[in-house]
Automatic annotation (TrEMBL), chain A:
It comes from the Eukaryota. It is found in: Mitochondrion matrix. Heterodimer of an alpha and a beta subunit. GO terms for cellular component: electron transfer flavoprotein complex; mitochondrial matrix. One of its GO terms (biological process) is fatty acid beta-oxidation using acyl-CoA dehydrogenase. It comes from Lates japonicus. The lineage of its organism: Eukaryota, Metazoa, Chordata, Craniata, Vertebrata. Belongs to the ETF beta-subunit/FixA family. Residues 25-217 form the Electron transfer flavoprotein alpha/beta-subunit N-terminal domain. This is Electron transfer flavoprotein subunit beta.
TrEMBL record, chain B:
Belongs to the acyl-CoA dehydrogenase family. GO terms for cellular component: mitochondrion. GO terms for biological process: branched-chain amino acid catabolic process; lipid metabolic process. Residues 45-156 form the Acyl-CoA dehydrogenase/oxidase N-terminal domain. The keyword Oxidoreductase applies. InterPro entries: Acyl-CoA_DH_CS, Acyl-CoA_Oxase/DH_mid-dom, Acyl-CoA_Oxase/DH_mid-dom_sf, AcylCo_DH-like_C, AcylCo_DH/oxidase_C, AcylCoA_DH/ox_N, AcylCoA_DH/ox_N_sf, AcylCoA_DH/oxidase_NM_dom_sf. It is an enzyme of class 1 (oxidoreductase). It comes from Lates japonicus. This is Isobutyryl-CoA dehydrogenase, mitochondrial. GO terms for molecular function: flavin adenine dinucleotide binding; short-chain 2-methyl fatty acyl-CoA dehydrogenase activity. Its EC number is 1.3.8.5. Its cofactor is FAD. Residues 161-254 form the Acyl-CoA oxidase/dehydrogenase middle domain.
Length: 247, 419
């Protein structure tokens, strides 16, 4: 096995920012707004780096799809311990309509190209909350998937994943190559250290275009309108007779 | 307006509710530098932004939740500082061959400014520790550097800077602590006052008199805790800076090996002053962080508090006051960063600029924090609100590492000396 892990990282609006809807209701304001790595992607990077430190895998490759600024997110992954990065350039209109289907096609193509043993992604992004990319990538590759992972262990050529599901915890064992998506309690991401940030400068980020991977970016979805959640209304006081009747 | 505050942030992490040590509601996320004109990331390189991000994250997660408790219980947060050291914050501008991070003065200023938003007092101590580590790194010989610096950079050991005495504060060159040469030891006699970390730290960088009167008779020696004749006064009770102990350091026939002297005899005062140039930028940076946090807190309060039927943010006087605070903050930040760059490049105006930056930033930032407290009304006076701690903590920045009056002396001397 190649011992190579692909980690997808997404640049999203920072979790602490107050989101504002654009006046034309076509989306949210992103210009001049603080962005950072999706928190679940941080957890994914941390898990991959941990596996490398345990010497269970050999190389961690961080991938991000987006415009020039996506490189900042890849640099953060490199500062956390990833070995090299791949920036898939998607800009302008294509970036606005970029969704899980397109990203999973890109990741599937890269996984084959890089001969990846494992793909680790965050379970969902905090901007669209889609929770689809991991699952779609696995389907496109016809690989097994361990989603909502709160524990991951490599055992030979299999991966044991403890999944957080509605009923509690489910443990599964899947063959590699596989896709794993990280849930909140999988680990606590490390802070990048000052020396690692400086070392990250020397690590390589390759530039790739979706066309080079043979991926068609056309979206099957069209966003019609974006609105704020409705204002919280005052509650109503029920009459006491009603409640006695119901009990 | 969309739902404001904690609920919105929790909802954005989907099914994952409050990861307690990361998602600190109310206090810390508001200090992350979101409001754009005062964003401290402006003008920085990508690498500096990365450093700043780590420092902000560390401040928000590891320091801000405890800052009130450290102040109230007077806790010296050794474990937290060691965690900071693991990230490279123990010897930021110390050379890498002895464990430092080898960064520039500007990088250092950016880092301390960000850390300060989490706890001013602890960050200020970390900056003093960094200053001592740098002095040993720069003026020590190889044996001294290798003996002391690695442990200081990892914060396995902590350091204190000992210059001030009961009889010599601003007039530092008149210090009296004597160091009599006896064979291969100096015998130290005297006492130092107001020493940050004194009694709890391991390595003391002490300026003492080996020669005759004046600055040229002063040398710098490193005294280790546990040396016979080294003792400490009572822990002082202070208005702020309570997460670091302050004590007198007393020398009674304290024998220090001559091999612990940094540089030559008579070089001590110059070493002390060079240390302080950087120290002044660091302290000014801590004031910047506090002021930044306070502007964020004031802004958020104005958007929430209602009087006379509308939010305070609709009141023109308060809008203008906030604008003035923001302007002074950015002006202070620019001066501090310019001084850091000048010091890094060893420019001829570096010393004056460091003094100007310390003078201006500490004064203005205190006023900003004080104004922010005023904007909170009665709530600003309660210890439940962080703004009062920022005010108390940065008040002393106008006094130590050279009073702002001494800063004026340095600047006027530069202007009035015929050259």
């Amino acid at each position: 096995m190649s011992g190579r892990v692909l980690v997808g990282v997404k640049r999203v609006i920072d979790y602490a920012v107050k989101i504002r809807v654009k006046p034309d209701n076509t989306g949210v304001v992103t210009d001049g707004v603080k962005h950072s790595m999706n928190p679940f992607c941080e957890i994914a990077v941390e898990e991959a780096v941990k596996l490398k430190e345990k010497k269970l895998i050999k190389e961690v490759v961080a991938v991000s799809c987006g415009p020039q600024q996506a490189q900042e997110t890849i640099r953060t992954a490199l500062a956390m311990g990833a070995d090299r990065g791949i920036h898939v350039e998607v800009a302008g209109k294509d970036y606005e309509t970029l969704g899980p289907l397109q990203v999973s096609k890109i990741l599937a193509a890269l996984a084959k190209k890089e001969d990846a043993q494992l793909i680790i992604l965050g379970k969902q992004a905090i901007d669209d909350d889609c929770n689809q990319t991991g699952q779609m990538t696995a389907a496109l590759l016809d690989w097994p998937q361990g989603t909502f992972a709160s524990e991951v262990s490599l055992e030979g050529d299999k991966v044991k994943v403890v999944r957080e599901i509605d009923g509690g915890l489910e443990t599964i064992k899947i063959n590699t190559p596989a896709v794993v998506t990280a849930d909140l309690r999988l680990n606590t991401p490390r802070y990048a250290t000052l020396p690692n940030i400086m070392k990250a400068k020397k690590k390589k980020i390759a530039n790739v275009k979706p066309a080079d991977l043979g991926v068609d970016l056309t979206s099957r979805l069209e966003v019609l309108r974006v609105d704020e959640p409705p204002q919280r209304q005052a509650g109503m006081k029920g009459s006491t007779e009603l409640s006695r009747r119901d009990s | 307006m969309a739902a404001v505050g904690p609920l919105a942030r929790v909802a954005r992490l989907g099914s994952s509710i409050c990861r307690n040590h990361r998602l600190i509601l109310n206090r810390s996320s508001q200090r992350r530098g979101i409001a754009s004109c005062i964003d401290p990331a402006h003008g920085l390189t990508d690498e500096q932004k990365e450093f700043q991000k780590v420092a902000f994250d560390f401040a928000a997660n590891e320091m801000a939740p405890h800052m009130a408790e450290w102040d109230q219980k007077e806790i010296f947060p050794v474990e937290t500082m060691r965690k900071a050291a693991q990230l490279g914050f123990g010897g930021i501008y110390v050379q890498p061959d002895v464990g430092g991070s080898g960064l520039s003065r500007l990088d250092t200023s950016v880092i301390f400014e960000a850390l300060s938003t989490g706890c001013v007092s602890t960050t200020a101590y970390i900056s003093i520790h960094n200053m001592c580590a740098w002095m040993i790194d720069t003026f020590g010989n190889n044996e001294q550097r290798e003996k002391f610096c690695p442990d200081l950079c990892s914060m396995e050991k902590f350091a204190s800077y000992c210059l001030t005495e009961p009889g010599s504060g601003s007039d530092a060159a008149s210090l009296l602590t004597s160091a009599q040469r006896k064979g291969d030891h100096y015998i130290l006699n005297g006492s130092k006052a107001f020493i940050s970390g004194g009694g709890d730290t391991d390595v003391y960088v002490v300026m003492c008199r080996t020669g005759s009167k004046g600055p040229k008779g002063i040398s710098c020696v490193v005294v280790e805790k546990g040396t016979l004749g080294l003792s400490f006064g009572k822990k002082e009770q202070k208005v702020g800076w309570n997460s670091q102990p302050t004590r007198a350091v007393i020398f009674e026939d304290c024998a220090v090996p001559v091999t612990n002297r940094l540089g030559e005899e008579g070089q001590g005062f110059s070493i002390a002053m060079k240390g302080l140039n950087g120290g002044r930028i660091n302290i000014a940076s801590c004031s910047l962080g506090a002021a930044h946090a306070c502007v964020q807190l004031a802004r958020d309060h104005l958007l929430v508090r209602k009087q006379f039927g509308e939010t305070l943010s609709n009141n023109q006087f308060l809008q203008f006051k906030l604008a003035e605070m923001a302007t002074k903050l950015v002006a202070s930040r620019l001066l501090v960063r310019e001084a850091a760059t000048a010091l890094q490049e060893n420019r001829s105006d570096a010393v004056s600029l460091c003094s100007m930056a310390k003078l201006f930033a500490t004064d203005e930032c205190f006023n900003i924090c004080n104004q922010a407290l005023q904007m909170h009304g009665g709530y600003g006076y309660l210890k439940d609100y962080a703004v009062q701690q920022f005010v108390r903590d940065i008040r002393v920045h106008q006094i130590l590492e050279g009073t702002n009056e001494v800063m004026r002396m340095i600047i006027s001397r530069n202007l009035l000396t015929e050259s």
